[in-house]
Amino acid sequence: MEDLLIFTKAGALVYFFLIYCAILFWVFRGKNKTKFEEYAKIPLKED
Asked: By residue range, what is the domain housing residue 14?
């Protein structure tokens, strides 16, 4: 039973690490650069 618990924890760690890497890839790819630059300027815009 302990082996299953260890395997599950390791599998969850790998799963969440891959999700984290996918999010980083999505954020930093060049296609989204202009959109995120516009979003960064929102707090500085006057109403």
From this structure: 2-44
